[in-house]
C-alpha cells in the first residue's frame, strides 16, 4: 500500500495555534496531545507533544524541543495542485494569505491551468492550483 508523505512540522511554541489555524483553513479532525498527557517532563506541560490534522490535508505537528529549530521551508513548497474543487482551492489560498504573504498571485497560466504561491503566517510555502473546470 502506498501513502503520500505527511509533513511533520515543528513550531517554536505555537503548534496549537498553527494546527488550529490549518484546521480552520482545510477542515478535518484535529487531535492534540500535550507533553503532560504523554508523560513528558521536558518543556512546558501544556506544550504540544504531538498534533494530528486528518482530512483533505493531513499534517502532523509539535512544539520544537528546547534548542531545536522550528519549521523553515526554503526550497520547499507544499503542493495542493488539484487537491479539491476550484472554489475550495481559491478559499484556501485567500485564508493562507491572510497575515501571510502572496509570493505569486493565483492566476491563469498560458498552459490553461491556474496556480499561485503563498507563504502563510507560520512560514509554510504553499503552491495552490487547479485546471479550468475542475470540480
Automatic annotation (TrEMBL):
Highest taxon above the source species: Bacteria
Q: Which Pfam families match?
A: Glyoxalase
What positions does the domain Glyoxalase/fosfomycin resistance/dioxygenase occupy?
A: 9-126
Which Gene3D superfamilies does the entry link to? 2,3-Dihydroxybiphenyl 1,2-Dioxygenase, domain 1
Q: What PANTHER family does its record include?
A: PROTEIN YJDN, PROTEIN YJDN-RELATED
Designated name of the protein = VOC family protein
